[in-house]
Amino acid sequence: TYVIAQPCVGVKDGSCVQVCPVDCIHPAPGEPGFDESPQLYIDPLECIDCHSCAQACPVDAALPEEDLPPEWMSSLEVNAAFFTEK
Ligand code: SF4
Ligand code: F3S
């Protein structure tokens, strides 16, 4: 799965949402919406690893989980947590 990491925080360019073919990039459920969410998150159960979000993101915040640098590994659980508790 792809994961949105630290560089998205405060940037939230949103290009990734436009290009995702399965529409699996969202503000966190429970946060009121795009404007209030500190970053966006990828639903790991929906992501089809198409790489479109990574290509679209201007700050390279969307990465395949295997390419996450150690300091951003926490993003893996952070992204997943919002969707697996449903
Ligand atoms: Fe969506 Fe593709 Fe990015 Fe997965 S890799 S979140 S399917 S754009
Ligand atoms: Fe964030 Fe990049 Fe998408 S900054 S909202 S991951 S295009």
Q: Determine and state the CATH class.
A: Alpha Beta
Q: What integer is the average pLDDT? A: 91
SSE series: EHEEHEH
Taking all Cα atoms into account, the compactness measure Rg is 11 Å
Q: Tell me the strand order in the biggest sheet.
A: 1-4
CATH fold assignment: Alpha-Beta Plaits
Strand content: 5-15%
Topology, number of strands:
4
By DSSP (H or I, 4+ residues per run), the number of helices equals 3
Helix content: 10-25%
What's the oligomerization state? single chain
The CATH architecture would be 2-Layer Sandwich
Question: What distance separates the N and C termini?
Answer: 18 Å
Observed structural traits:
two-stranded antiparallel sheet; binds FE3-S4 cluster; Alpha-Beta Plaits; single chain; binds iron/sulfur cluster; globular; 12% strand
Can you give a write-up of this model?
This protein has 86 residues and is of the alpha+beta class. Helix content is 24%, strand content 12%. The protein has helices at residues 15-19, 52-56, 74-84, and strands at residues 2-4, 25-26, 41-42, 62-64. The chain is globular, with a radius of gyration of 11 Å.
